[in-house]
Amino acid sequence: MNFYEHQDRARKRTKVIVLLFIVAVIIIMGVIVVPVGLASEWNGGAIAIASVGCLLIVGISTLVKLGQLNDGGRVVAEMLGGTELQTSGRNKAEQKVKNIVEEMAIASGMPVPSIFIIEDNSINAFAAGWTPSDAVIGVTRGCIEQLNRDELQGVIAHEFSHISHGDMRINIRLIGVIFGIMAIGITGWIFARYIGPIILRSSSRSRSKEGAGGAGIGLAVIVFGLFLVVCGFVGTFFGRLIQAAVSRQREFLADASAVQYTRNPNGIGSALRKIGGIPQQSSFSKDGGQCNHMFFSQAVRSLFASHPPTTERVARVEGIDVASLPAPTRVESGGVSENISGFSSTSVAQGVQEASGIQEEYVARAKLAINNISPAIKEALHNSWSARLVMYSLLINKGDPKQHELLTNLLSDQELVELKNLLPLVKKEDRASRLPMIDLAAPALKQMSNKQQVVFAKTLTALVNSDHVYSRFEWVLVSVIKKHLANKNVLVDSKKANKTLARCSKEINVVLSALAYSGADSGDLASSAYSRAWRVTGLKEMTMVQVNDCTMESMQKSLCALQSLWFVEKQKFLQACESCVEHDDSVTVAEAETIRGIGDMLDCPIPMFGATPNMSPQ
User: Fold this and answer.
1) Does the structure show a pLDDT above 60 at 280?
2) Contact at 8 Å (CB) between 498 and 8?
3) Measured between alpha carbons, how far is 407 from 419 in angstroms, rounded to an integer?
4) How far, in Å, CA of 266 to CA of 246, rounded?
5) Could you tell me where the DSSP H helices lie in 263-383?
6) CA-CA-CA-CA torsion sign (304, 306, 309, 310)
């Protein structure tokens, strides 16, 4: 099962969560309604009030929690007490995890996720977010300090697997569901702990009959609160049950994917052995229980285990019998290895086939691309103030008076001086380093306020439009950056994925026509590339769109509509795009960047192709 199938399957698994949620709510309602019915001699009004009250508490609590998490992984990480890792790490351990995350993100074609450190001595990690664009990677202090590079790489690969498989969206929805069905107990605790005692204290100050009546009301509120707390235990039971049911099998899959990515079962296997040998002494925030299912290993003790037994995970990863494993003992961390584990090589077509897959060829290229970027540029990319200027430098055409006038009016004197220093360094960089620079800038750009991001996006658009010519790279840069920002004020919301290729044939025609024209030297070659791409889709070939109608604006509009394709249909479409650009048996850097931009628009990260023997730099 590849990336696209996993995405569609993940969306279908959401229906299972909804079903389990409905069953849990019905049972909780039964637990509440039956005692109310017995106490009221089955009075219809009392039963209706109890039922509606239960539904309102659960429903509103779920919606409020999901609303709080609407901004993505950053909110989850901060909820768990995480602190964002700023620029370069303060020590070797922090720099180690930053290097691994950057290499894996660029290799897989994803924006580099922000890294959050949780000050906890246990070994744990998580990935959180709705999409790869707003994803974050969280690691505990114990994880980065007690694991060597191979072990940490295995853990991070496990988390990237959750991003690739669409598990993050399920995990965030599951947080809302669990909070909702546990809200009955929380409400009861508030009544019993605060509201009831307040009424009692206020009534104790009065010696009148009204005071005595108030005391009775206070006691009734406390008893009612305790009743809800007891009912809440049922909610907690089902919350943990759903957590375990949804999470356990996905952990096996993520472990297997980590081995596939790294080709080194000893890395993640050794990390799991250390976790199994270290007593659980985590100090996560009170929200840790709601997020148990998101972690690499179980963060908080629970009635139902949210993860499979560590010994079973080790046995599957290392291909051995569980019975052969010795009793858990603490394993000391080995020396820090800076080697990248071996990955199997793959082709450009394989990159589109797998999507967001991490292979040796991609990781090696990612590490090479990062190392080839000048230290001054890399330092600038890790700061939101200067990262903007690097992005502007990628768009600036030397000697363009309109761009110069635009930036002079928009930037401060200090920014203009820094831009002047960065511009020659950026222009010296290899063209194949342009997308890695954009990816590396993602965490820093996300640190800007919403207002700053909107201004930044408008400035990018103004720079592109200054010469009234919208080149392919300009379209790729603006599209990828806006996707990286994941800011609703600068990005068109993704559509619900539920359409087939046949229902979007007009939009597909626009994109394939534009790709065919841009990669061919003559009309005949463009027509040949266009026909070849249509054969991949399996649809009846349409009349090719006229070249004058294949603008970047029309391509952008078409891709926004194609966001509504099923993911397996997106795979066919991307394969058609790949076939179109490979019609002449070569892929230029510009064509590879365009495929990457299309993939980003469709929420299908495409691994960096890099400069290969069959890839022309022009």
Assistant:
1) no
2) no
3) 10
4) 27
5) 265-277, 310-318, 348-354, 360-372, 375-381
6) negative
Give the C-alpha separation, 14 to 168, whole Å: 11
State pLDDT tens for residues 364-397: 778 888 888 888 998 999 888 999 999 999 988 8
Backbone angle region of 309, left / alpha / beta, with phi > 0 → left and psi within -120 to 50 → alpha? beta
Three-state DSSP string of 228-257: HHHHHHHHHHHHHHHHHHHHHHHHHHHHHH
Q: What's the pLDDT score for residue 32?
A: 85
3-state SS string for 20-66: HHHHHHHHHHHHHHHHHHHHCCCCHHHHHHHHHHHHHHHHHHHHHHH
Closest CA to 595 of 512, 538, 529: 512
Amino acid residing at 384: S
| Cα distance between residue 261 and residue 154, in whole Å | 8
DSSP states of 435-500: HHHHHHHHHHHHTS-HHHHHHHHHHHHHHHHTTT---HHHHHHHHHHHHHHT-TTTSPPPPPS-B-
pLDDT: is 297 or 487 the higher one? 297
The pLDDT of residue 120 is above 80: yes
Q: Is the pTM of this model over 0.70?
A: yes
In angstroms, rounded to a whole number, what is the distance separating the alpha carbons of residues 100 and 103? 5
Give per-residue burial for 37-75: e unless 16+ CB within 10 Å, then b.
eeeeeeeeeebeebeebbeebbeebbeebbeebebbbbb
What is the number of other CB atoms lying within 10 angstroms of the CB of residue 352? 24
293 is written with which tokens?
Answer: 């299912």
pLDDT tens for residues 324-364?
Answer: 555 444 434 333 333 333 322 233 454 454 444 555 667 77
Element (H, E) at 389: helix 384-395
Other CB atoms closer than 10 Å to residue 554's CB: what's the count? 16
Out of 528-542, 575-589, 603-617, pick the least confident.
603-617
Is residue 139 classed as helix, strand or coil in its secondary structure? strand
- Closest residue by Cα to residue 171 from 292, 46, 12: 292
Length of the chain: 618
* Other CB atoms within 10 Å distance of the CB of residue 35: 13
Phi, psi of 127 (to 5 degrees): -120, 135
Which residue in the block uniquely carries the two structure tokens 């999507």?
A: 355
575 near 567, Cβ under 8 Å? no
H or E element in which residue 584 lies: none
- Kindly give, in sequence order, each residue whose CB lies less than 8 Å from that of residue 537, ignoring residues fewer than 6 positions away: 501, 508, 572, 573, 576
Active site residue 338: no
pLDDT at 418: 92
Tell me the three state secondary structure of residue 311. Answer: helix
**Residue 466 and residue 553: Cα distance in Å, rounded?**
15
Phi, psi (rounded to 5 degrees) for 552? -65, -30
Catalytic residue chosen out of the listed positions 103, 145, 151, 159: 159
Distances in Å between the alpha carbon of 462 and those of 280, 408, 454, 535?
54, 13, 12, 38
Residue whose C-alpha is closest to residue 290's, from 186, 184, 182, 189 = 182
